[in-house]
Amino acid sequence: MRLQDKVAVVTGAASGFGEGIARRFAAEGAKVVLADLNDPAGEVVAAEISASGAAPEGAATYVHADVTDLAQVKAMIDTAVERFGRLDILVNNAGTSHLRKSMIEVSEEDFDRTFAVNVKSIYLAAIAAVPLFRAQGAGCIVNVSSTAAISPRAGLTWYNGSKGAVNTITKSMAVELAPDKIRVNAICPVAGDTPLLATFMGKPDTPENRAPFLATIPLGRLSTPEDIANAALYLASDEASLLTGVLLEVDGGRCI
């Protein structure tokens, strides 16, 4: 059990990468707080984890949390402490994007939402979690970024920029928090088989529309929640105790 007795908060955990991370963490011995806006789906995932023989009894709990609202983010972190007694790992996975289109056709509302969910959420989560980590003497933060920050795709300019901010913030946090024994790393997935894929493509998710995306990935497939969960597990585990400020590309060679 690589996360035995650890407590983790995973945002955007009702589906996609976040769900995969929450399930993997629990299977490796962690107790997990799943945070999302999709209450029905989040509650189902938490219940399935808790009922799983592969996870500790009562290993998961769900909390409704808008990651762009400080009060709700603080309540999310408080839930971990109240339910499980501490917090060891924070996974900032919640993310969104504007529809793929010309940069000057993206509405101001969509721009603001993209930066609020992808960037401001990390700031708010730090306000809530870093004092707790400092008091405990250690902590681990994993930010879910994107290959869009390294090898941008046309039509996703403002999304690309938000993930570029995540990468820079990750490295800056790593430097600033290292004296507190708080590690901060990021995962940069290539486009995944998740509900956001159609948004990235700007068109329906069909085999024909996926083809141009797949053509840019040397290994020839999209990322899966399992791929990202395995990367997050490593970064959150003690095996990665010397890693901080790392931007781990899980991309089938896309960024080469």
Characterize the structure shown.
It is a single chain. With about 260 residues, this protein is an alpha/beta fold. The chain has one domain (about 5-250): NAD(P)-binding Rossmann-like Domain (Rossmann fold, 3-Layer(aba) Sandwich), CATH 3.40.50.720. Helices cover about 45% and strands about 15% of the residues. It is built from eight helices and seven strands; from the N terminus they run βαβαβαβαβαβαααβ. A seven-stranded parallel beta sheet has the order 3-2-1-4-5-6-7, with helices on both faces. Helix 4 (about 110-135) links the parallel strand 4 and strand 5 (about 140-145). Helix 3 packs parallel to helix 4. The radius of gyration is 17 Å and the shape is globular. It starts with 6 loop residues before the first strand and ends in a 6-residue tail after the last strand.
Count of helix runs: 8
Listing every helix as H and every strand as E from the N terminus to the C terminus, the arrangement reads EHEHEHEHEHEHHHE
The count of DSSP E runs of length 2 or more, i.e. the number of strands, is: 7
Shape: globular
What is the CATH homologous superfamily assignment?
NAD(P)-binding Rossmann-like Domain
- Can you tell me the CATH class? Alpha Beta
